[in-house]
Amino acid sequence: MGFFSTILGLCGFGIGISMGLVIGYFLFVYLQPNDVKDPQIQSIAEQDPKSMLRMLPEIPLWVKNPDFDRVDWINKFLEYMWPYLDKAICKTARNIAKPIIEEQIPKYKIDSVDFETLTLGSLPPTFQGMKVYLTDEKELIMEPCLKWAANPNVLLAIKAFGLKATVQVVDLQVFAQPRITLKPLVPSFPCFATIYVSLMEKPHVDFGLKLGGADLMSIPGLYRFVQEQIKDQVANMYLWPKTLVVPILDPANNAWNIIEEIEKQTP
Fold first, then answer.
1. Which of 85, 96, 206, 231 meets the CB 3.0–4.6 Å disulfide criterion with 173?
2. Cα(6)–Cα(146) distance, rounded to whole angstroms?
3. Predicted confidence pLDDT, tens digits, the chain (267 residues)
């Protein structure tokens, strides 16, 4: 009897799940509202105070803060060049990630990790404004406001213990306000020796993560945990006064110092 009761229980469970999915599908399809109206389009002057408050986070910084300048020309440049920048950035990312992955996977008994698909999508980042600081030092300090609502397709294939799993990153959103410092300014192309990058506040990073087609971010509690971990890790590395240092000119080849000395000696 125990065997038959187990079989019947499994059958009942399977039938219940199937019926629940079918009923849920029909309820989702046929109970959608039919009286959907087009949104009303109004000018800013016609908006009520509550609507204006909801719109404030979306207003560019150059509107709210006179210290920030419009940089529409950069956005136009990115829009035109993005198909080429996408391929170049993805190629560079593959080259950088490959040796790091090969170094790390033996520690976790993983056979291989490969990018099956890597594209940043068709939507380029946009700059909502940029602030430039004037100093007496040989440096250029910029603070752009970056917003990027992207549609990337990053598909990672992981093989271990004879099994294969795919992890996919989709629907990426990044809001950040970095401080970019070019220093020292030198009379040798590209006219600055090092790039320093810091984040002035914790960035907002949001994305979808799928494992084998299943949305992992729909797991209760996981979404908020991942968001907080990303913010904390990025803040620990790059939140001001910590910086990301990107050398441009080789310090060993101090050609700009030689040029400066020659200019000083020239009457």
1. 206
2. 58
3. 554 455 545 455 455 555 655 565 555 545 555 555 666 666 666 667 776 667 666 666 666 677 788 888 889 999 999 999 999 988 888 887 888 778 877 777 777 888 888 888 888 998 888 888 888 888 888 998 888 888 888 888 888 777 788 888 888 888 888 899 998 888 888 888 888 989 888 888 888 878 776 777 777 777 778 778 877 887 788 888 888 888 887 765 555 555 555 455 455
Q: How far is CA 234 from CA 28, 37, 135, 201, 244, in A?
A: 39, 42, 28, 10, 11
Write the single-letter amino acid at 159.
Answer: K
- Are 79 and 87 in contact by the 8 Å Cβ rule? The answer is no
What 3-state class would DSSP assign to 59?
coil
* Domain carrying residue 110: 45-265
Domain-embedded: residue 4: no
Domain presence at residue 19: no
Helices marked H in 171-241 — which ranges?
Answer: 222-238
Radius of gyration, CA atoms only, the chain: 26
* Dihedral angle, C-alpha 120, 199, 244, 188, nearest 10 °: 90
Q: Is the peptide bond before 241 cis (omega within 30 degrees of 0)?
A: yes
- How far apart CA 235 and CA 227 sit, in angstroms, is 12
pTM score: 0.63
Residue 7 belongs to a domain: no
Number of domains in the chain: 1
Q: Which residue has 């080849």 as its token pair?
A: 253
